[in-house]
Specification:
- The chain is of the alpha/beta class and about 250 residues long.
- The protein is about 40% helix and about 20% strand.
- The protein has 8 helices and 10 strands.
- The strands form 2 sheets. It has a 7-stranded parallel β-barrel with strand order 1-2-3-4-5-6-9, surrounded by 6 helices. A two-stranded antiparallel ribbon has the order 7-8.
- Helix 6 links the parallel strand 5 and strand 6.
- Helix 7 packs across helix 8.
- The longest helix has 21 residues.
- It starts with a strand and ends in a 5-residue tail after the last strand.
Length: about 250
């Protein structure tokens, strides 16, 4: 039976602000990317989300982002590769403490938002992130956009990598994600998400915004936890994969 990892960006509430429905989404995914406090999240939310992931037997990953709480980490900020190294080291270290206190381990690291997309195209930034992950623990898996500089940097650093695709985002012809400010960039229809996921998993291709098909390596599928349809997408995608005979498993399983 073919296996695939299904992940979601979670733990993105902070202070008085509640974002997403983590406890419900965790029933349907195999890996959780937990925000580490820079773009979202706070110590209480990190602690709680680690506990929820353990209750649901969901693998835990760190989700470091840019220092941009107001912009939810989705605004490009000019940083150096050294900055990328240090903010990754700092944030993964914070989650590592909560995970260790809970008696478990981090499975992977997946950068968030603008940091993720910048590192997908900027080899030097990607190298800074990959080196930080390797220096923390060389057994960690680095998640990155399929075909990106981040995947290349992770492999070069000696890390195991997971090529990530997205259930709820449209693609550009070069394999990058369509910018969120463009119409149709974020899916609101579960049927569209399911169709794209099944195409990527079974055919190894994705249909881009201009109607062309490109090849895409598919190791793990992301559903954004802050999407208004996150719970519906998680449930429907989970069911569709199982019905297609595809088992949802984290890398640790």
């Amino acid at each position: 039976m073919k296996k695939i990892d299904l992940n979601s960006d979670l733990g993105e509430s902070f202070g008085a602000y509640k974002i997403g429905n983590d406890s419900a989404v965790l029933q349907y995914v195999s890996s959780a990317n937990i925000a580490c406090g820079f773009h979202a999240g706070d110590p209480h939310v990190m602690h709680k989300t680690v506990a929820l992931a353990l209750e649901n037997h969901t693998a835990i990953g760190a989700h470091p982002g840019l220092t941009d709480l107001n912009g939810f980490g989705r605004r490009n900020i000019n940083i150096t590769p050294q900055d990328a190294y240090e903010i990754t080291l700092y944030q993964v270290g914070a989650l590592y403490a909560f995970v260790k206190a809970a008696g478990t381990q981090i499975q992977h690291v997946k950068p968030h938002g603008a940091l993720y997309n910048m590192a997908a195209k900027d080899a030097a930034l990607a190298e800074g992130i990959a080196n930080a992950v390797y220096d923390i623990d060389s057994s960690l898996i680095l998640y990155g956009l399929a075909g990106s500089e981040l995947i290349k940097a992770g492999s070069h650093a000696g890390l195991k990598t997971a090529s990530e695709v997205f259930a709820d985002r449209a693609y550009m012809p070069d394999g990058s994600l369509m910018p969120r400010n463009l119409p149709g960039a974020v899916f609101s229809d579960d049927k569209t998400a399911i169709s794209q996921v099944l195409q990527m998993v079974t055919a190894g291709t994705v249909t881009t915004a201009d109607g062309s098909e490109i090849s895409v390596q598919t190791d793990t599928i992301c559903i954004h936890g802050d999407n208004a349809k996150a719970l519906l997408f998680a449930e429907k995608v989970n069911n569709a994969l199982n019905e297609a005979g595809i088992s949802i498993k984290s890398f640790k399983d």
